[in-house]
């Protein structure tokens, strides 16, 4: 049962359905709405203070991304993933990332490297503290986006965003483990160092190791 109210921006040009979609997606990706949770249209309408029409439109969008399953006469189930789905998604992410590296590594600018370094430094500072999983997750997304942008092909970003949405739900959980956080960011650093050296083969190898490790870690440590 959802109790907390969520305020929509009534002065915004963004339609309610899109605001609701973004806010619900954020709650799902951050596990505020955890896998296995069931919510109803009425609960969501009360939460957002709207009619059920924009709720239904937002739900259809989330359903198309695999984040919600509609259960007749019960409501909406925040979907779970099985380990095989995680492996399939990450297999495709490997291909996209390595292709982006191979295509763009010789065109990487100092500004690109500076952006990557800034992300790494922020993350490594956060690793010195505790309970920073929620802050580390978006930095990891930014890091991977920087890699994909190297190819100069926006479709790489779009595809990864679509197929990686499910994986991103478990980033906060992964980073809540000290081993998970430290290992993941060590991998990020290794990928970045290989890119600095313009060694596409090594950078791809390190990226593959990183993504495959993530698949194994999710299988072993995170309930999905």
UniProtKB/TrEMBL annotation:
Residues 106-133 form a coiled coil. Residues 14-81 form the HTH gntR-type domain. It comes from Syntrophus gentianae. The keyword DNA-binding applies. This is DNA-binding transcriptional regulator, GntR family. Keywords: Coiled coil, DNA-binding, Transcription, Transcription regulation. Transmembrane segments: none annotated. GO terms for molecular function: DNA binding; DNA-binding transcription factor activity. The keyword Coiled coil applies.
């Amino acid at each position: 049962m959802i109790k907390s109210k969520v305020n929509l921006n009534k002065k915004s040009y963004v339609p309610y359905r899109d605001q609701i979609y973004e806010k619900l997606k954020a709650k799902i990706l951050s596990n505020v709405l955890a896998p296995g949770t069931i919510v109803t249209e009425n609960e969501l309408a009360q939460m957002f203070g709207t009619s059920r029409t924009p709720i239904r439109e937002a739900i259809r969008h989330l359903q198309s991304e695999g984040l919600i399953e509609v259960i007749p006469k019960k409501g909406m189930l925040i979907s779970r993933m099985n380990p095989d789905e995680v492996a399939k998604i990450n297999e495709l992410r490997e291909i996209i990332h390595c292709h982006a590296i191979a295509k763009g590594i010789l065109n990487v600018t100092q500004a690109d490297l500076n952006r990557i370094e800034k992300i790494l430094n922020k993350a490594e500072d956060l690793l010195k503290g505790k309970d920073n999983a929620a802050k580390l997750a978006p930095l990891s997304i930014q890091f991977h986006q920087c890699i994909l942008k190297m190819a100069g092909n926006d479709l790489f970003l779009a595809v990864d965003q679509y197929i990686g949405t499910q994986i991103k739900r478990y980033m906060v959980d992964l980073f809540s483990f000290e081993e998970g956080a430290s290992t993941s960011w060590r991998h990020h650093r290794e990928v970045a160092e290989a890119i600095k050296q313009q060694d596409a083969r090594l950078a791809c190898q390190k990226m593959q190791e990183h993504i495959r490790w993530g698949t194994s870690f999710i299988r072993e440590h995170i309930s999905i």
